[in-house]
Amino acid sequence: MILPQYNHKKLFVLKYLSAFFLDSFPNPCYHIRVPMKKEPYDSSTEKAKELKMEDFGTPDEVREIAKSIRTASTRQRAAEILKEISEKGALTNKRGLMATLSSDSRGKIVSSKALRTSSGQQVHFMAVANLDKLFYNAIEPWDFEMNPNKNNMDLNARRYLFAPLESDEKIIVVKITIKEYIDESLRKRIYSVEAVDTDLWTKNRDAGMLAPSKPKPTKKPLESVPAVCTTLKALS
Question: CA nearest 45: which of 180, 160, 201, 166?
């Protein structure tokens, strides 16, 4: 008696393909990051103004993570705290992103140019003094093109993270710029900090969302579908 021949590899892939659409597909190719359309290099500050309270969590969660843990009202004090933060080692955020602070970066972050970029001097010093907490809670909703007018020879990307900070009865957004180097030994380095003139609290109030609400469930992106389809075609 001749038993029917089954393509066991194909059956295995089909089995887990069905599981994928139930949000439990364990295929390694799921972790491949599919390139997204990048935002213009000069739009990061304007994109920060598009962020809403719900992008960071519920109103109660955002009020909590936006609280400062230190104060600084002068450049000298902000620089001292920034040095203390850097001496603790690389910063890590909730999503596992790690970045370091070099001495050059520390100088730029408290420079007069950085102060002019932020929405105010005092709020800039507060952002600098709370950089480790801001970085921990920061989100990265967009990818951006690199500025062609700058030297990008050693860079993979300039990345922009955004975090909420309470200041003067407002919840502003702080933008953190990171340089991601091609040479992995250089790691990712925090390059600049900017307090953006926007208020998550006002947006939330105007939208009638002051009452605590559950965050919207996030769907995993279907990044591995093309890879799975290619695999199935190869096995057929």
Answer: 160
**Contact between 195 and 172 (Cβ < 8 Å):** yes
Question: pTM of the predicted model, to two decimals?
Answer: 0.73
Residue 34: half-sphere exposure toward Cβ, Cα within 13 Å: 10
3-state DSSP call for residue 75?
helix
Residues in the chain: 236
Return the percent helix, strand and coil in the chain, to nearest 5. 40, 20, 40
**213/216 Cα distance (integer angstroms):** 9
Rg of the chain over all Cα atoms, to the nearest angstrom? 22
pLDDT in the model for residue 176: 98
Give helix 225-235 / helix 8-20 axis angle, nearest 10°: 160
Q: What is the mean pLDDT of each run of 10 residues along the chain (236 residues)?
A: 47 44 40 66 96 96 96 97 97 95 96 96 98 98 94 94 95 97 92 96 69 39 41 42
Backbone angles phi, psi at 89, to 5 degrees: 105, -170
Rounded to 5°, angle at Cα 125 from 196 and 165: 50
Q: Is 191 helix (H, G, I), strand (E, B) or coil?
A: strand
- Are 130 and 70 a contacting pair, CB within 8 Å? yes
